[in-house]
Specification:
Layout: E1 17-20, H1 22-26, H2 36-48, E2 53-54, E3 57-58, H3 71-77, E4 88-89, H4 93-101, E5 106-112, H5 115-122, H6 126-142, E6 146-152, H7 165-178, E7 182-187, H8 194-206, E8 214-218, H9 225-234, E9 239-242, H10 262-271, H11 280-294, H12 301-306
Parallel strand pairs: 1-2, 1-9, 3-4, 4-5, 5-6, 6-7, 7-8, 8-9
Bound molecules: 3-hydroxy-3-methylglutaryl-coenzyme A and magnesium ion.
């Protein structure tokens, strides 16, 4: 399989942690409900391709996201090797109870930077979402779990338009204060451009949320995800969310398409000599296999170029 020609560039990290979200952010948005055995095989193949942080599913209300209603069943079906982290999405205490019963060690809560999306995604106001998260995170930390915090609509909202940087900083700082070890900055509808990324990371630094705690989460709706990611790496970020094959979207955000494809990210990082531990060939084979289950081609440009 073709490989990119290696040429290093200044000002970039030596290693990047890929936080793989295909099984969760990807499959939550598919019309088809994928069989639990296929999901388990997908995760097993992702592990075999070298991914070590794999968000597997969500313990949200099954009526809200029926695609992931089999969360507990999936976790029972998985037998992950030690060294693989398998966080799950949890919105509230009920979700935490279900995650704890399934033996989860790591969760991610997900906040909105805007009022409208808090209402649509969590049935809450901006403040109410924190009333939901505070006891959830306290109990999770007491139980020894690691907690990641997502912030959605960081760079634009389909209903509200522009989102002020200060509003994103406030929400992110509140999640940091609650005890989230990592904050993932979500471009939920894929509208960000690199200047915004530089501005937000800078403003968070000023507010005391250092770049070592940040991850970036770009959707690729406007084709900006790789440019935004490279910009974030230059700003010092070393954890990048992406989804195998570019699967994904958010069922409660209009016009959101898939995440940055993991293959597109790995092609760029391999070319720059930045280590990820991922075997691109195995990953492309996995996404091609998954696309036959979903009955549609992968939107990833690298999968399209390399498959077949
Ligand atoms: P609600 O209807 O307000 O819930 O939904 P409630 O607290 O009023 O409870 C109503 C009933 O639901 C109760 O049952 C609860 O027990 C039950 P009843 O007493 O009536 O029998 N319930 C639950 N059952 C199972 N699991 C639970 C749960 N919670 C309550 N966890 C809620 C509020 C937060 C639950 C709902 O809005 C929800 O599930 N939202 C999730 C939406 C979602 O998953 N969106 C996609 C993920 S976010 C995303 O993709 C963005 C991201 O990728 C980053 C980016 O791109 O920006 C992360
Ligand atoms: Mg997302």
């Amino acid at each position: 399989m073709r490989k990119p020609q290696l040429t290093r560039a200044e000002g970039l990290p030596e290693r990047v942690t890929i936080y793989e979200v295909g099984a969760r952010d990807g499959l939550q948005n598919e019309d088809a409900i994928v069989d639990v055995a296929v999901k388990a095989e997908f995760v097993r193949r992702l592990v075999d391709a070298g991914l070590t942080t794999i968000e597997t599913t969500s313990f949200v209300h099954p009526k809200w996201v029926p695609q992931l209603a089999d969360a507990a069943e999936l976790l029972t079906a998985l037998d992950l090797p030690s060294g693989v982290r398998a966080p799950v999405l949890v919105p509230n205490e009920r979700g935490l109870d279900r995650a704890l019963a399934a033996g989860v060690r790591e969760i991610a809560i997900f906040a909105s930077a805007t009022e409208t999306f808090a209402r649509k995604n969590l049935n809450s106001t901006l403040d109410e979402q924190f009333a939901m998260f505070t006891p959830t995170v306290e109990r999770a930390l007491d139980a020894g779990l690691a907690v990641r915090g997502y912030v959605s609509m960081c760079y634009g909202d389909p209903w509200e338009g522009d989102v002020p940087v200060e509003q994103v900083v406030q929400v992110t700082a509140r999640l940091a204060e609650l005890g989230c070890h990592e904050l993932s900055l979500g471009d939920t509808i894929g509208v960000a451009t690199p200047g915004q990324v530089i501005d937000l990371i800078g403003a968070l630094g000023q507010a005391g949320v250092g770049v070592d705690r940040l991850a970036v989460h770009f959707h690729d709706t406007y084709g900006q995800a790789l440019a935004n990611t490279l910009t974030a790496l230059r700003e010092g970020v070393t954890t990048v969310d992406s989804s195998a094959g570019g699967l994904g979207g958010c069922p409660y955000a209009e016009s959101a398409t898939g995440n940055l494809a993991t293959e597109d990210l790995v092609w760029q990082l391999d070319g720059l000599g930045i280590r990820t531990g991922v075997d691109l060939e195995k990953l492309v084979t996995t996404s091609t296999w998954m696309s036959t289950h979903l009955g549609k081609p992968s939107p990833s440009r690298v999968v399209q170029a390399l498959a077949g």
